[in-house]
Amino acid sequence: MSKAAIGQRHRTVRETILKMSVADYARTLSVKENTVYSWENGRTSVPQTALAYLERHGISAGWMLTGEGSQKAARQRQEPTVELEHHLGAMQRIVTDLKQRPITMGVRIPMLSIGVSAGTPTASDDTIEREIDLAEMLLEHPEQTYFIRVVGDSMTDAGISNGDTLIVDCAVDPKPGQVVIAKVFGELTVKRYMQRNGRPVLRAENKRYKDIAITADMDFRIVGVVRSCIKAF
């Protein structure tokens, strides 16, 4: 989606929904008026801070960035994003169900005792070293673990790409430096969890995205810690 199209939606939201002048809007976000004009003219990207502010007023960041979804729903300031809340509720029900469900052994897969050559193939016997269970190998707390699909490119420098599948552990406390799944203004995001002056910061692993500094008035919660990434080839 072009920056110009995003900027046009941004201008429409500011003028018709927020009913704010450029000066008032710039003052609210602590930026210069020229910066707002730059967003709306498509010269620069609308930052995460502005999208987070719009989320607080019931305007979907997903709709802002893509133009997809119900425009009417995105324009209703006081109504929650129903689709997001549905997915969050479903995730919470899945995690609760996993806690109550006895863990059973899955399919055991042969592990060969040889390595695989990335160069010229070499002749060797396929010897089975042992059989492994993927749940045993990948899940430390299977009763509080779920898989989630990545959408977007904000973590590509960490080796996490669009379409990859993340294994997320809800049983551990997040530590600075870990990659986490966080809920910010009702929307799930994958970022690296950091701290700055004692306050949480969500850092993207892509220079095109700015840090999200978490303030006391923000709807913020860490859902789980990313343990593994299953690549989509």
Describe what you observe in this structure.
About 30% of the residues lie in helices and about 25% in strands. It starts with a helix and ends with a strand. It folds into two domains: about 80 residues, 434 Repressor (Amino-terminal Domain) (Orthogonal Bundle); about 90 residues, Umud Fragment, subunit A (Ribbon). It has eight helices and nine strands. Helix 2 packs across helix 3. It is elongated. The chain is an alpha+beta fold and about 230 residues long. About 5% of the residues have low confidence. The strands form two sheets. Strands 3-4-9-5-6-7-8 form a seven-stranded antiparallel β-sheet. It has a two-stranded antiparallel sheet with strand order 1-2.
Could you give a quick summary of the protein structure above?
This protein has 233 residues and is of the alpha+beta class. It is 32% helix and 24% strand. It has 2 domains: 77 residues, 434 Repressor (Amino-terminal Domain); 89 residues, Umud Fragment, subunit A (Ribbon), CATH 2.10.109.
Q: What's the name of the CATH homologous superfamily of the largest domain?
A: Umud Fragment, subunit A
User: What are the segments in which pLDDT stays under 50 over at least 5 consecutive residues?
Assistant: 73-87
Number of H/I helices: 8
Q: SSE order, as H and E? A: HHHHHHHEEHEEEEEEE
Summed over residues and divided by their number, the pLDDT gives a mean of: 76
Output the strand order for the largest sheet: 3-4-9-5-6-7-8
Count every beta strand, where a strand is a DSSP E run of 2 or more residues.
9
Q: Class of the largest domain, according to the CATH hierarchy?
A: Mainly Beta
Broad structural category: alpha+beta
* C-alpha termini separation: 24 Å
Main sheet summary? 7 strands, antiparallel
Q: Provide the gyration radius in Å.
A: 22 Å
Shape: elongated
Helix content: 25-40%
Percent of residues in beta strands: 15-25%
Number of domain units: 2
**CATH topology-level fold name of the largest domain:** Umud Fragment, subunit A
Give me the CATH architecture of the largest domain, please.
Ribbon
